[in-house]
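User: I'm writing a tutorial on reading structure tokens. Could you give me a worked example: one chain, its sequence, then its tokens, then a sentence or two explaining what the tokens reveal?
Assistant: Sure. Here is the example chain.
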Amino acid sequence: PYLMERATVATKEQIARTAADAIATLWSYTPDDMDKLSERSARYLGGDFGVQYRRYVDAIAPTNKQAQVSSSTAVVAAAVESLRGSEATALVYTNTTSTSPNSNNIPSLKYLSYRLELQREGRDWRVTKMTTVTSLDLTPKL
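And here are its predicted structure tokens:
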């Protein structure tokens, strides 16, 4: 029982770390590396979600690049909600800051939390679904 519990804890740590790394990668970019965002994110994504995310990024990339949008997402907490064999659900809490010359570089501040569904592929965990749980926009209104 002890070894089984230790293995479960190690697996949950890997899932939480993967979920946190995935969110930070998915939502952090600059105008200079926006066109490589899909490639950087691919290692964390699986199933149809990977295809959906690539379509989304391909749709927003030209506009964000032209507007010189930079976004930085810091993960403040991540935890495994459930683990069932090769499937898991994790919660990730973030602070996201975005800037653009179009907004006089006044940062857009958002606190977001996500629920990620992950599937094990070999030794790795891949995000197969992501939903926003909470969203709080603290962007200054000038």
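What the tokens reveal: The first helix runs from residue 2 to 26. The CA atoms of residues 28 and 72 lie 4 Å apart.
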